[in-house]
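Look over this record before class:
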Amino acid sequence: MWKPNTTVAAVIERDGRFLIVEERIQGELKLNQPAGHVDANESIIAACRRETLEETAYQFEPTALVGIYQWTVPGTDLTYLRYAFTGELGEHDAARQLGIADEGIEAAVWLSRDELIARAAQHRSPLVLACIDDYLAGRRFPIDLIRDFDGNSL
């Protein structure tokens, strides 16, 4: 039975630069927002907090939904549903090891949109730039659009 993968991403901007994760996938360096899968018994918003912390060592509090994106990897039936959030960047724990739960995370870097375009061949998916462009266009939806009926903490 076909099921899409539910993922989250954090679109975090500071001084015209975006927090981006460099990760090695099948030997190739890729760029992505702090992002990942929603775990069992985890709310979508809690997953965004967790993934951002795991991949960047920054605390993050989602405050608005930038968009919901559907993408199928070309030539496969692998489909992702991505919930992209923006919000408040919190403290950074410089001593925290990145990617403890995700093998391949190499660094968290701050890149401008122009720098991201120059490195487009390294984007993990077309969702990277789509989320940033929607953020820059001012797309923000109330976070209370997401409602959890499983009793999970949002």
User: Anything to note?
Assistant: The radius of gyration is 15 Å. Strands lie at 5-10, 13-14, 17-25, 28-32, 35-37, 58-72, 79-92, 105-111, 141-142.
